[in-house]
């Protein structure tokens, strides 16, 4: 069912036009009519907020687009710089070290001469002249031992020596008497033999005189033998007397050499036994004018160690002092258990600054058998390719060179092979440094190609 609306009245449109005209002609009526219409219908929406929102959105979109374009351009520039970047690196030369090799090893000081002094005479300590720390000269009296038994033995031996000398005098007198008897017997025998030949004496008398002559000769030989026995007794007794006299000199114990007393085991009144080498010594004395420094040199340096090699000795407690020494002796053969060479360095110590028993550091000036190339340790590259260094050529191109290290000296490396003297190596090489890369050296050598040209060449490549 269709709904129909009533058609507008025929005079409605002209009436509206007439009313609009009346409003335009009469302002008062127009205002009244406007107020009436305003009260009768809502006002239309404003266009300004939409315009502001549209302008803000457009500005934001434009700013975002410009920022995106700027970031994109910066990334292009960064990419170009990364492609054309030539790093600046520090370089240093590889040098040949043909001087003596310095080798520092621990050592210990020892007295050049050391003696434990024992008693040779049995008795009591009657007097003590020195104590620990006393400096003595050769022949100075250390202690005096009272040994009355030994003194009596010496006197007895001297008395027996006098007896043997008297016996020798008696034997010599017997010899003289025997010689006289032999002379008389010879004369009697000759006379009797002459008379018996002429018939004036019997043959029996001649035989008896001959027997008497032989007896006198035998008596002379016996007397002479007694003289020899007496002389032998005197010689033996003289040796006994000399021994006892020597032992009595040991009652005064003296210093065997110039030195310092480092140990004292006796005091006045102590009983000591002579010739007791296994007992407690009276004193221990060290000579410290020259000290021995014992060092165990490893096999790696033993070949270069020989008499006359210079050495320097330092003590941790005296950091400002260095003592010069010389290798004076070594065992020549290495100890098979530890493969070290027993070496002794003699150090002059006239002022007594050093003491026996100190722990010291000994630096040897070992002559080099073969000169070696030396580089800074910061040039070392250790990666999957092994032990290498980056060498910069005359064209500023990097070449990675494998090396073999002979000795690590901490801040320096001695190489067995891989480099020659004068080659420039990169110090602290960057992690992205590769074979054939171009760098700008900074150090002993300057770049021979400006950076701008390097960038152009890199871009062209």
Give an overview of the whole structure.
InterPro entries: Beta-barrel_RND_2, MdtA-like_BSH, MdtA-like_C, RND_pump_MFP. Residues 21-31 have a biased composition (Basic and acidic residues). The chain is α+β, with helices and mostly antiparallel strands. Among the domains are: 88-97 and 371-460, conserved putative lor/sdh protein from methanococcus maripaludis s2 fold (Beta Barrel), CATH 2.40.420.20; 148-250. 38% of the residues lie in helices and 31% in strands. The protein contains seven helices and 22 strands. The chain has helices spanning 12-25, 27-40, 48-84, 148-198, 203-249, 299-302, 451-460; strands spanning 88-93, 95-97, 101-117, 123-128, 135-136, 141-146, 252-254, 259-264, 271-272, 283-298, 310-315, 318-330, 340-348, 359-366, 372-376, 380-383, 386-392, 398-402, 404-408, 412-417, 424-427, 440-442. Strands 1, 16, 17, 18, 21 and 22 form a six-stranded mixed β-sheet that branches. It has a six-stranded antiparallel beta barrel with strand order 3-10-13-12-11-14. It has a four-stranded antiparallel β-sheet with strand order 2-15-20-19, with no helix packed on it. Helix 1 (12-25) packs across helix 2 (27-40). The longest helix is centred in the middle third of the chain and has 51 residues, at 148-198. The chain is elongated and about 205 Å long.
